[in-house]
Amino acid sequence: xxxxxxxxxxxxxxxxxxxxxxxxxxxxxxxxxxxxxxxxxxxxxxxxxxxxxxxxxxxxxxxxxxxxxxxxxxxxxxxxxxxxxxxxxxxxxxxxxxxxxxxxxxxxxxxxxxxxxxxxxxxxxxxxxxxxxxxxxxxxxxxxxxxxxxxxxxxxxxxxxxxxxxxxxxxxxxxxxxxxxxxxxxxxxxxxxxxxxxxxxxxxxxxxxxxxxxxxxxxxxxxxxxxxxxxxxxxxxxxxxxxxxxxxxxxxxxxxxxxxxxxxxxxxxxxxxxxxxxxxxxxxxxxxxxxxxxxxxxxxxxxxxxxxxxxxxxxxxxxxxxxxxxxxxxxxxxxxxxxxxxxxxxxxxxxxxxxxxxxxxxxxxxxxxxxxxxxxxxxxxxxxxxxxxxxxxxxxxxxxxxxxxxxxxxxxxxxxxxxxxxxxxxxxxxxxxxxxxxxxxxxxxxxxxxxxxxxxxxxxxxxxxxxxxxxxxxxxxxxxxxxxxxxxxxxxxxxxxxxxxxxxxxxxxxxxxxxxxxxxxxxxxxxxxxxxxxxxxxxxxxxxxxxxxxxxxxxxxxxxxxxxxxxxxxxxxxxxxxxxxxxxxxxxxxxxxx
Length: 594
Prior knowledge:
The chain is mainly alpha-helical and 594 residues long. The chain is built from 19 helices and 14 strands.
């Protein structure tokens, strides 16, 4: 369905900047927050930030909620991890924001906020007379404003303030005044930057954008990210507000809030939805800025932390925030990353259909492996360096992931690796690698099975392969030592004879090592089956000794294993009389009657 055919209306935003800036933080708490990735949010100006809801609603009419990107004619633009990195200054790489949702939040609140169980119970939000599992933001602010900050409790004050930030800006909900306690374990100052907060913010916002497309009138999440994205990417929207100067301060949200803070306060300057929609619909390729973050002066200010994470902008992964999952469709919107078609790897690791679950009353569940879909998404994130669409891009630093339990067996689809070898295009069924040891007496063998995509057209190893591998291992290591530093032996089963094998002047060879045979595939005459150019006419070659041939083959294979060069025996396919008779009868049936 065309995205423009869906009417979108936004009446409110769950993000409340004025409530967040209203909390005057203690200097000791501010000093600790400055050590984290959330330091930039404390620099927002005080006051209410009016959002142009009509412009955001018109923009979301062009949002394709299946592949989760914007469509303007032939141009496709995504709100991606690169936008999040430059706009918010939050990490886009690290451990995903996901884990166990506790059955009872009281223990979590007591352990992380250093309050009593009674005080923790008072912090919970009551909805329709029933106690929920979320913390009331107003109660949280009042509670810690009345507690003096000391060296002993400064850590709990920092967590309370950061949780207040998450609830009012980043992970806002339709209740407007609550935040889940599940984020508290992620707010340790010494470990907080090891999490992919930017990816979690993106997942939360995109899920809410999909819900708005389906009829919701409240946009949850950090809606200001979407606003700055629109101004950075679409020149026609900047012209409506006469924004001719682009900020160069990192992160960009601080520069944009200074430019738009006063403009958004004047209601008469807010454009109508019709005006914004027509401007976006008439937009040409020249009105779309594909590389807004390459302008002069901006890239220089990118901190080293984000330069090390810049490879994540090419990752075809799911962005994750507990039950919220969203696609990162860089395989579709690769032009906005400055890539050419030749730089992009072919299609691999296809996305599954998004199947989200709501956070219901039942708790004590692990969202990282809640069901097969969530398991696949989280496991794919842990292997995110394997899903980079740009060729020759690698993650130079080790990935930061959760420690997996030994008994966890999580299955995920592996990307199909492109084979650029000029020799072979098919992976071996079984690899036997032997490295040349410094000491022959300490030579060792290692068997490795290559990873093949689930959609591969190659067969799986068979019992015959296993027997051949065991035969090789039965020999002493000295017998397998060779001059080369590495040797790969491939085992393949010869195909069974078909009718095409009998359509030639001589027998076809099925072994791939035979390079000397010249097959004549065009001859479809009435030659008898079993004829060989170098053999006598008739059904059988009486000069051929099958036993001697088998002995020659065995001696050749034995010499090959022992490193002794022996003449390669001539290969010949011998068909049984029953097979010859069967094919002859079939040919008679195919001959046209005169």
